[in-house]
Amino acid sequence: MKHLAIAGLLLAMAASGASAQINAGEQKPDPSLPFKLVQVTTLNLPWRIAFLPDGRMLITEKVGGLWLVTQQGAKTPVANAPAVLWKGQGGMLGVFLSPHYKKDHNVYLTYSEPGDGGSSLALARARLKIGEDSASLEGLQVIWRDGERGNGGQFGAQIAFSPNGKYLFLTSGDRQRFTPAQDPNQPLGKILRLTLDGKPAPGNPMAGKTGAASVPVTDPPRDTESAKTAPVVRTYTFPGPNLTPSETWCTGLRTPYGLAFAPNGQLWELEHGPRGGDELNLIKKGKNYGWPLVSYGKNYDGVPIPNPDTRPDLTKPVIYWVPVIAPGNLVFYKGAMFPQWNGSALASGLASKSLTLIKFHGKGGATPAERWDIGFRVRDVEVAPDGALWMLEDARPGGLYRATPK
């Protein structure tokens, strides 16, 4: 049945063109896992893994802090981690190795930085120093902040480095505020393209442009259970006497938790929809991906959102999920243990407690290939240097698991 369902998806794609949208929400999990899963240790709400060249891991805990973890599960606290505001979806979030780590030993952290009135998404860089029985961050410096203090989650906080190692792409969620994703004067709801020092990268599409914009938005745009009014379309004008943020690469994103470059250099993003409508997007310079103007999902109060088919000027996802998988992250596989997956990507699932294998066709198309029920909320899946898969359980405590072929 699984193969028939996948064949149906492929036939539908072929019938309507390579850019056809696929709803993979009804895909059923395979009856068995293709790997054995072994729990190695536990952590306190773990969020992200970054592998060092020798196979050890840096792992963030959402409640705050960073650990150096061996493949046998021995944990060493990493000193000098920054303070975070752990609240809702905020806390210590991502950890990523510099593309030149073997030379500079730099690591990058993303987190909700506390301050007056709430928190902002912060991007920091530090040098990792590892001793015989110790580890620390040296010279930590915040190199970018969103500046949008306040409450609300959906920080995004994912990084992907360009294949040439020169630039850093950072996802910035809409912080559950909706309209900023379409406001050219705010970094929320965007993907940003920065230098490795956190500065706007040359060649970004918004550089030098005036920040005024008028866009139609379906109102009320809110995540509450109280409003039952019918949707009203209003036009919001975002005044912009100043220049728009020159770090913006693309706009209209909601909760971009997944960001990764494919082997062919294409950039892919994976995000949460509201009630339905998780999206896999092929990211291109200057494109608008529609949030909150359109979605395949609905507002949490049940108020409909216009379908993406109503706005041909906005870029549609390649795959969407109704019902959702609630993605944790996206990683392209490259390794020896599962050679049949080389060039494919894996998406972790939170509410769905799943792992989804996605295959790519090289010209902007993608199809869901396999889906496995893991049995716990999968916050992160990463590929170790030896090709094994490692997963983090989104729980307190949450397990660290290693997956190898059966």
**CATH class category name:** Mainly Beta
Order of helices and strands, N to C? HEEEEEEEHEEEEEEEEEEEEEEEEEEEE
Structural class: mainly beta
Give the strand line-up of the largest sheet: 3-4-5-6-10-9-8-7
Number of DSSP strands?
27
For the biggest sheet, the summary is: 8 strands, mixed
Q: What is the CATH H-level superfamily?
A: TolB, C-terminal domain
Proportion of strand residues: 35-45%
Q: Could you name the CATH topology?
A: Neuraminidase
* Separation of the first and last Cα atoms: 23 Å
CATH architecture assignment: 6 Propeller
Name the helicity range. Answer: under 10%
- The poorly predicted ranges are 1-18, 218-242
Globally, the shape reads globular
- Put simply, the count of helices is 2
Let me know the average pLDDT: 89
Work out the count of structural domains.
Answer: 1
Can you describe what's shown?
The structure is a single chain. The protein is mainly beta and 406 residues long. The protein has one domain (2-209, 245-405): TolB, C-terminal domain (Neuraminidase), CATH 2.120.10. The protein is 5% helix and 43% strand. It has helices at 2-16, 101-104, and strands at 22-23, 35-43, 46-51, 57-61, 66-69, 75-79, 92-97, 106-115, 118-130, 135-145, 156-161, 167-172, 190-195, 213-219, 232-238, 248-251, 255-261, 267-272, 278-283, 319-321, 327-332, 345-349, 354-360, 366-373, 378-383, 389-393, 398-405. The strands form six sheets. An eight-stranded mixed β-sheet has the order 3-4-5-6-10-9-8-7. Strands 1-20-19-18-17 form a five-stranded mixed β-sheet. A four-stranded antiparallel β-sheet has the order 2-27-26-25, with no helix packed on it. Strand 18 (267-272) and strand 19 form a beta hairpin. The two termini are 23 Å apart.
